[in-house]
Amino acid sequence: MTAPITLSHLLALSGLLFSIGLVGVMTRRNILLILLSLEILLSSANLAFVAFSRSLGDLSGQIMVFFVMVVAAAEVTVGLAIALLISRKAGNLNADELRNLKW
Amino acid sequence: MNPITGILLCPIVGSLILLLVPQRRSNWVRWISTVATGIPVLICMALLIQFPRGHAGYQWVQKIPWIPALGIQYQVGVDGISLTLLLLHVLCGFTGVLISYRIKERVKEYYIFYLLLIGGVAGVFVSLDLFFFYLFYEMAVIPMFPLIGIWGSGDKKYATMKLTLYLTAGAVLALIGLLALYAVSGAHSFDLIFLERYLTQNPIPGHLQKWLFPFLLIGFGVIAPMWPLHSWSPMGHAAAPSAVSMLHAGVLMKLGSYAILRIAVQLLPQGAYTWLPWVALLCIMNIIYGGFVALAQKDMKFLIGYSSSSHMGYVLLGIACLNPVGLNGAVLLMFAHGLMTATAFATVGHVYDQTHTRIISDWGGLARRIPFISTAFIIAAMASSGLPGFANFVSELLVFFGAWNSYRWSALAAVFGIVITAFYMLRAVRTAFFGPLNMRWAELEDAAGFERVPYLILIAALLIVGCWPRFLLEIISSSTGTVLSHLTHLETIAKL
Amino acid sequence: MVAAPWIILFAPALACAAIVLFARNSKPLSATLAIGGLAVSFSFAVYALLQSLHPLAETIESSVSWVNLPGLALEFGLLLDHPSILMSLVVTGVGLMIFIYSVGYMGEERGLPRYFAFLSLFAFSMLGIVLANNFVTLFIFWELVGASSYLLIGFWYERPKAADAGKKAFLVNRIADFGFLIGILMLWNLSGLEGQSRTLNFAELAERLQALVAHGTLSPQLLTAVGLLVFCGVLGKSAQFPLHVWLPDAMEGPTPVSALIHAATMVAAGVYLIARTFFLFWQTPEAMAWVAAIGGFTALFAASLALVEDDIKRVLAYSTLSQLGYMVMALGLGGYVAGIYHLTTHAFFKALLFLGAGSVIHALHTNNIWEMGGLLKKMPVTSITFLIATLALCGIFPLSGFWSKDEILAVAFFRNPLLWVVGTATAGLTAFYMGRVFCVAFLGSARAHSAGHAHESPPVMSVPLMLLTVPTMVAGFIGIPHYLHHGQEAGVHVPFNAIVAGISTLVAMAGLSLAYAVYGRGYQPGIQVQRVLALAAVPLSRKFWVDEVYGWINRNIQQRFADLLSLFERYIIIGLYVNGVAKITGFTGSVLRLAQTGKVQGYAATLLAGLSLLLYLSLR
Amino acid sequence: MIPAGLLALLPELWIGLLFSAILALDLRWKETRSSTMGMLTAVGLMPLFPLLWWQHSSLHPADLLSGMYRLDPMALLFKGIFSASAILVTLMTRELGKTIQRGHGEFYLLLLTATLGMFFAASSANFIMLFVSLELIAITFYVLTAYLQTDLHSLEAGMKYLVLGSLASGLLLYGFAFIYGATGSLQFSKIQEALSHHQASLPVPLLFGLLLALSGILFKVAAVPFQLWVPDVYQGAPTPVTAFLSVGSKAAGILVVFRVLQELFLLQAHQWSPIIAWIAGLTIAYGNLGAIPQTNIKRLLGYSSIGHAGYLLIGIATATTLGSAGTNFYLISYLFTNLAVFLVVTAFSRQTGSDEIRDYAGLSKRSPFLAAAMFIALLSLAGVPPLAGFFGKFLLLMSAVTEGYLPLAIVGAAAVVVSLYYYLLIVYTMYADKPEDPTPIPVSAPVRLALLLCLVAMLGIGIWQGPFLRISLAASFQ
Amino acid sequence: MTAFQMVHPLLFYTLSGLMVVGALGVIFARVPIYAVLSLVITLFGMSALFVALGAYFVAAIQVLVYAGAVLVLFLFVVMLLDMAPEALFRARSRIMMVAGIAFGGIFLWQLVHVTVVIGGRPGLFTKQPVAGTTAAVGKLLFTTYALPFEAASMLLLVGIIGAIVLAKKKL
Question: Residues of D with CB below 8 A from C618's CB?
């Protein structure tokens, strides 16, 4: 517990979060929560960027993080709008029942 | 203008003009089509007369750079082999237009597709560039789809789909072969004339040739049609409207054997030496199998269809011989068989259009009612069974002579094949045209007046060439000689 | 003079073309053209004959190059030597009579122009066989003869029997030609064995074969095989056992056609072929033995079949078979001259017989001899000419048949006594069945209503009959054997042998007498004998079941095989392999689309699965 | 002296201007004038062509605007492709008419932003720029896909696209992060420099980053195994959006693959080339086989577009100039061909309200023009000479064979046959089957014009390949 | 191996623990609101980590945009739709669960693999750390990254237009 924290630690954390996000995307039934899991994905990528930025001594990684947040915000807006419409139309937000288009 | 380009452009321009003709003007459509296919006949006749006898090499070559970066050029021209087949093609195309006067439904569309088909096929025969060769080759396949699909009969959806897909499958396989040829030749050119010269000097290594040859052989063999890749053909013939069957069996099938000869054998002689004996073996299947299956058919068009695939076995056998006699026989047989089968399909179509049945036993005694058509059919049947006087006889004879020393068993099978041919052809004649007239057909109309012209043209051509084969053979042999000189050249290299 | 063979050959061809082009609807014009064409041929044949009689006359050979390729030069060539001159005389002469006769016999037919076109075509083809100087030319006309015979037999194509008969004739011949063509191919190959360019010219082949045999380059077995293959063609055209089945059926054709084709000329082509290729057979005794044996067997076999036949034309057909067997046997025994001699005389009297039969049929509209009777008084010309021809056929002195048949029997007597016995027995049978026909049809009283009202045929028919009687009677005296001997070294020449002639004449007389006794006088043998005869008649009337065997083979082997292949085509090639590929492709598509479950998380999982695989494979 | 950066940015500025103009008009005009607005958008986009041509002929390739913006022939070619597809899609949108119940103006605006995003993507020279522009495209398309608010299909498609698209973005981003970490920069030129040290083989983190980034991009291209969204989204989205997705978005994806693989990682081609070749082969097979049993034309086109993506990847897999040129050429021909098909689909469904293939029965009688256009376009899609689609396939197969990817070439060739099957089934339905409802289908003048243009382009490109090949060659990496 | 002196191991492990727990909460929470709130924990933890790594501006934005705007939006929607927790959890498919965890695991394993490789390569981490202050980042944003910045503004505009066009009942 006292070994110095290296880039690997940060990346491992980021990776763990990313994986949790993936699991969330695949397993959560509610569309909203799938969207929420996607946020974990993006955030974990952000963590990786910041970690790399720190280790490289280069700010462009942090710039990227900024843009990712913008993108995430826009994405969530649109996603929530669509989710809202689906909920109005279909009566629920169950991802498994959203399968009129198939095969 | 270059006469070859003229032949090529006539039908294509014709079809473009047809696009502008109003739908109701059926007669304009017919006349334009007649002219668009008639002019090539005249040009071709003129070329035939002017063709220098005993002169090897391509004549009336026109070369326009097209995509220099890839070594692609528009290059057309004919030698004896292609001129002969071109003649066959324009004859069948022209007579097909005449036969199609009977078509009353969607005339304009029909002729547009038909002329495109004619243009595509003509393109294959005159192209001296592998790219354009392939381009026209596929162009010739596709118009068949609507032609059969719309104006066909019977199980036309299945037939036309199968035909198109099958032929395309062959074509793309051949395309792979062509591209590989391009890649390994190192010549960076699709120019056939150049490649012929170049590959004589710098042949492709033997193991590559052996590996490349099957692509071209099978690819083009599909349309030839080589056993067991033939099953598209009888079905396609059966479902197609008569002019299309004529062109299809008469000319389209020859594209395959022509391509094998022109490209595969000529450019990959070592591959040819390796693989053609196997082809000769398959020919036995083509001939005997095709013949026996024809013997079991109850449907007239299927019968002729299987007969065609059986007879194309002779052509392939002739090519497989790789000697002047066999090759000349093969080319002449392509010509002869084309005319013969076109005649047969034209007659069958004439009857079918009125009876709406092709089952042979449903007909009966038609000779009484429609003597002209019956005579034409009997002539075709006789020609098909190798009766002297018709071009088929002499060409089959040449194939026998050519094959006798190279592939004895195939030659035996081939000779036996004409016995089988006689069996099914005469049985068909007996059942359909002889015997008492089936009273259902008491109102059948014979071909009268102008309608007889196409039959007479085809039969006359068969007879002229059959009685005086030297006329065409001189033209053909000059070019087959060139093909073979590549091979003998190779032999000398191998010996050194 | 070089033009003579060409004119002889092409005059009928031109006539045929002219009829097709200009006289499709005119009976008189078509008849005139056909007869004119053949008359031209005939006159030039006569001219050629006269020329050839000159002691210094040379054989005329003339050819044009038909196919000229490196490795194969085929010529269209004609040869006018003694056998061919004789044969062309026979063909054109007998043919001319038959053509003229046809005007009367077929005058009522709607399709007369067609008929004459076919006849001219046939004459052209037959002359081609006769005049050909090489195998390819001969084969061309060989096939054309088959085709024109097909057309002529099936002239009344609306009659199922006629149509079937035509087909059968063509097919049987085609089977025979399979062997013939292979024989030609082998010969062509042999001709180049010593390095020369290959040839199919008869004269050159003769030289080369001789050289090959002399040098021992050629194995006898191979030569025998070639000989037998060529003989295969003979089997078909000359209707030798076992390919004889088409000839009796061919009687469905118009009677003049039967006379011309199936008596005088076409069937003789096979015999002529042996003669033409005698240089080949002479080198191979094994093949010769087979030829002789088959000839002899056919002679006896066909004669026995004729015993119980009631159809007058069929009797004549079997008789033709039997006589052809004689000729083949003669040639097989080496009796070159004897065979051709008999061929010539047979052409005359058999044509006469057929024309006579035709005359009767024309008058009575029946072929059955048991519906005739008593025609001797009603139709005297026909009857008498028929009688002369019958006697000639039976070999009664001094008619032509006597001389030629005895020449054959003499050859057989010296070369192969067994065959001589067969030949003599056949002569007896011949006399018996001919006597039977004559007695039943012409003697006694009318056996049917129509026979009572018969009238003699018009002159256009009876004059040819009478004209044909002349050669039938005198052909034995004009030195045909001598003419044939000229320039022919090979073969066996046997002088006239009185003993053989006497025996055969006696046997023939006995046969005739027996026939007369039974059918003219109504003599009934004992019950026992009758039983035996009835028993013997069964296989005869069923023609030894040969047709049945062929039919069985046709139906159960050939057609079953075809059906089998057709099923293979349908279920294996199309069903399994073509449609199978298509179905598998389509099925794969239907399976693949199941990946598209519609569940977004499933898609995500698949995406990740793919990615994981990708990562695993790359980062390994 | 105008700075080069500004000159280079002119097309984007022009689109921005157009965007503002439409925005302003949208506020003032009523919904009823939306079709005029569509026309305006289409016409407004046209000056882009001369502009791009001018840039091509007078500006030098360079990295501009602090290295964010890349001006090179490839970017210009792709911008041309984007503009052309945008114009045709705009015309198509006009045909939608009442299908879109509201927000016509905004629809055009979103089309413009998507186009702008594609333009930016084409000119990106930095991963940040690239990411933002890709997301601009993606998010616009999420909205556009779900645009038919009352149609659950459309919403479902939008949501699926959004979820999977975001997942892909996450992967892309993660990949970028590792590339960034391993090379120390997000700037293409610097990355390229850093990568030149790793010629023999890529270190694991880089390869990991590359593969993740690649999957994010291949998702856009719709390559196996990232293709599952395609059929659903294509079917559910409004037809013009499907068309734009299938051409514009896919082209953008291809462009980015080009940028990443052939510009940045060209030296490591031996490492990624087999991977792309496998993906290409599988994609071709999946798309074409899956299309066989389809009955909805949009869904079928979705599958078929997967197949085409596979072909496009062949050129990338070969990593040669010829291959890249082949891909470029293929895209040009695919643009006209596919949009022609979608034009017909739009015109047809406007009248009949159906996208089912069986309803196309007898189209040749109801509208010979539409049927003929569809026929030719489908043939071109299948790759039948002398149409444009053929030569593209020819080039791609040629490059595959030349580079020794023979199995890939055979798969590509075999797929031609399969594709011909399902295309010809449509043709058969149109030409040989009897129509249930024989009323003629009217075709509006702009659509007719656009279709004619596409047809002329298909034939022209197919027959007179030279100039287009030159363009494609010029725009490919040397 | 270059250590990160500014990140104390204790701080790191504490924050990591929080973040992972928060993330797991998103996956496993039965009630949507809890899921959203547990994500807030993760994001706050990450923000703190950012500060520790010297990315001050980004950390601030993280709190403002993510926790402040995005998650609030989520909360609004969750409340607006008033979703019952049971309905959400009950029908979760077992196969998907297994698949998800499996693929997540595989992915993690691969990530760890890569990370280990990176950890063993000291050459990559030689640079001196720079502080991501607002001034430094802002300067970059408005100079070098002006173009993406503009593009991002366009992106937000699309987000706005999209949300309005889609979700607003009456335009």
Answer: 207, 211, 271, 275
The percent helix, strand, coil of chain E (3-state, each to 5) is 80, 0, 20
Residue in B closest to D388 by C-alpha: B135
On whether any CB of chain B is under 8 Å from the CB of D473, the answer is: yes
Chain C: residue whose CA lies nearest to E106: C612
Closest partner CB to C608 (pick from E103, E113, E114): E103
Contact state of D147 with E154 under an 8 Å Cβ cutoff: no
CATH of the domain at A83: 1.10.287.3510
Helix axes C312-332, C285-306, angle to 10 degrees: 160
Contact assignment for C605 to E99 by CB distance below 8 Å: yes
| pLDDT reported for residue E119 | 60
Residue A103 placed within a domain? no
pLDDT single digits (tens) C238-263: 888 888 888 888 888 888 888 888 77
Interface ipTM above 0.90: no
Q: Do C167 and B289 touch (CB under 8 A)?
A: no
What are the b/e assignments for B409-448, b being 16+ CB within 10 Å?
ebbbbbbbbbbbbbbbbbbbbbbbbbbebbeebeebeebe
D416 closest CA partner among B136, C589, B144, B168 = B168
- Which parts of D184-249 fold into alpha helices (H)? 188-195, 204-221, 229-236, 239-244
Residue ranges of B 150-169 with Cβ closer than 8 A to chain D: 150, 156-157, 160-161, 164-165, 168-169
Q: What pLDDT is recorded for position C620?
A: 67
Average pLDDT, integer, range B421-443: 86
Average pLDDT of chain C is 84
The answer, yes or no, to whether residue C112 has pLDDT greater than 60, is yes
Q: How many domains does chain A have?
A: 1
- Distance to chain E for C599, nearest Cα, Å: 10
- Chain A residues with CB under 8 Å of D156 CB are 86, 98-101
CA distance A103 to chain E (A): 19
Question: Is residue A80 domain-resident?
Answer: yes
* Residue D68 to residue E147, Cβ atoms within 8 A: yes
**Position A101: which residue type?**
L
> Partners of C64 in the beta sheet?
C76
DSSP, residue by residue, C542-570: TGGGHHHHHHHIIIIIIHHHHHHHHHIII
Instruction: Give the tens place of pLDDT for each residue, D135-194.
Output: 999 999 999 999 888 888 899 999 999 999 999 999 999 999 989 988 888 998 888 888
pLDDT value, residue E2 = 42
Residue in E closest to A54 by C-alpha:
E129
- Domain range summary for chain B, segments of one domain joined by +: 3-495
Q: Does E19 touch chain A (CB under 8 A)?
A: yes
Residue A100 included in any domain: no
For residue E7, is pLDDT > 80?
no
Domain span at A20: 7-95
| Residue A2 placed within a domain | no
pLDDT in tens, C468-490: 888 888 877 877 777 777 766 66
Q: State whether residue C95 is helix, strand or coil.
A: helix
Mean pLDDT score, B419-431: 89
Full-model pTM: 0.90
Contact A22 C608 (CB under 8 A): yes
Nearest CA-CA distance, residue D69 and chain C, Å: 31
C555: buried, middle or exposed (CB in 10 Å: 19+, 13-18, 0-12)? exposed
CA distance D463 to chain B (A): 10
Chain E contact present for A79, CB below 8 A? no
- Predicted confidence band at E91 (pLDDT cuts at 50, 70, 90)? very low
Over residues C183-211, the pLDDT tens digits come to 988 888 888 877 778 888 888 888 888 88
- Residues E67-86 have a mean pLDDT of 78
